[in-house]
Specification:
The chain is of the alpha+beta class. The protein folds into 2 domains: 41 residues, no CATH class; 97 residues, Fusion Protein Consisting Of Minor Coat Protein, Glycine Rich Linker, Tola, And A His Tag, Chain: A, Domain 2, CATH 3.30.1150. 22% of the residues lie in helices and 23% in strands. The chain has 3 helices and 5 strands. Strands 4-3-5 form a 3-stranded antiparallel beta sheet, covered by helices on one side. A hairpin with a 5-residue loop joins strand 3 and strand 4. The longest helix has 16 residues. The radius of gyration is 17 Å and the shape is elongated. The protein starts with a helix and ends in an 18-residue tail after the last strand.
C-alpha cells in the first residue's frame, strides 16, 4: 500500500487488525509521515539520495549526463552507501551503463537511511529536455 501511495501526499494508517484489516488514509506531514506512522516514506531522505547520486553522475563527464534516460534500482546500507545497483533500462551505451554502475558503487549519502525505509529504491534519470528541474551546472558538476 505504501508503494501505491508514494508521492501522493497521503499515508495509510491501520485502524483494525484481523482477517479484514482496515486502513484509513491521512494527509502526510512534511516528512511523508502521519503522526505515529513508523512505516511512512521519508521524502527528505529520498531527496538526499537523489542529490548524492546526481552529484556523482555530474562529476564524471564520460557519461554525458543529459542526453539519455535510465531506470536504476539500488539499496542504501546502514552506512549510507549505495549497494546492489542495477540498471533496469540501458542508457543506450554499454560503456556508459558500465561506468554508471561503477560510479554508483562509490556513492554515499551523508547519513544512514531511516530503519523503516522500504528498499530497494528506484530512480529514473531523464534527459535534460524532459527534466528541467536540475542540470549538472546546478550542482557544481561537469557541464
Amino acid at each position: 500500500m505504501r508503494q501505491l501511495l508514494m508521492g501522493s501526499g497521503l499515508v495509510a494508517e491501520k485502524v483494525a487488525n484481523g482477517p479484514d484489516d482496515a486502513y484509513t488514509l491521512k494527509e502526510a506531514d512534511a516528512h511523508g509521515a502521519s503522526a505515529g506512522d513508523a512505516n511512512a516514506v521519508d521524502f527528505d531522505y529520498g531527496g538526499r539520495i537523489q542529490n548524492s547520486i546526481w552529484h556523482a553522475l555530474c562529476a564524471d563527464a564520460r557519461i554525458a549526463l543529459g542526453s539519455w534516460r535510465a531506470l536504476l534500482r539500488f539499496r542504501v546500507d546502514a552506512n549510507g552507501h549505495v549497494r546492489d545497483a542495477r540498471l533496469y533500462s540501458s542508457t543506450g551505451s554499454e560503456r556508459r551503463d558500465a561506468e554508471m554502475l561503477k560510479i554508483l558503487q562509490r556513492v554515499q549519502v551523508e547519513q544512514a537511511p531511516p530503519p523503516q525505509m522500504a528498499q530497494p529504491l528506484t530512480m529514473l534519470i531523464l534527459p535534460f529536455e524532459q527534466d528541467r528541474s536540475q542540470r549538472c551546472s546546478d550542482v557544481g558538476g561537469a557541464p
